[in-house]
Amino acid sequence: MLERPLAGEYGSHFEPYVEKVPDVDLAVLLESQIEECIQLLSGISEEQSKFRYAEGKWSLKEVLGHIADTERIMSYRLLRIARGDKTPLPGFEENLFVAHSQADTRSINDLLQDFAAVRIATLSLFRQLDDEAWMRVGNASGHDTTARAIAYIIAGHAIHHMGIMKDRYLSAIQDQ
């Protein structure tokens, strides 16, 4: 079981994500999030999936696309750091990614399949790393970061956004 990273193993701006991860087997949690996300959004119509809870906020589809895109980037960082690459890895502009994602033109089912594919790839990488690889340190977005911290950030980021989907999107859709 992968141990929780210490506070100095990642940038403090990622603390809210790491804190959201329960003390369970991280691989099991990551795998269960696939089905959790599918169940969360099953029964949502295409029209409902374009819902925005406020002006200027992302649509439900865009949030789902954001989770997948962010995981792609974080998994790439995880790979680079776990393999011992010390090259500083830049940050990314999430709003730019969402603006160019075309998420609202894709079906909710396609976006769910995309998230599942990304997560399966992340799990494949996760399962091949040994204790030494998890403790390797690289630099991502200007902060020293361990590979294990990135795994927790991936899980916590999904927890965070699935919570937002429940609280701000799905609850409002159900009230309509």
TrEMBL record:
InterPro entries: DinB-like, DinB/YfiT-like
Transmembrane parts of this sequence: none
Domain of life: Bacteria
Domain DinB-like positions: 30-165
Protein name: DinB-like domain-containing protein
Species whose genome carries this gene: Paenibacillus apis
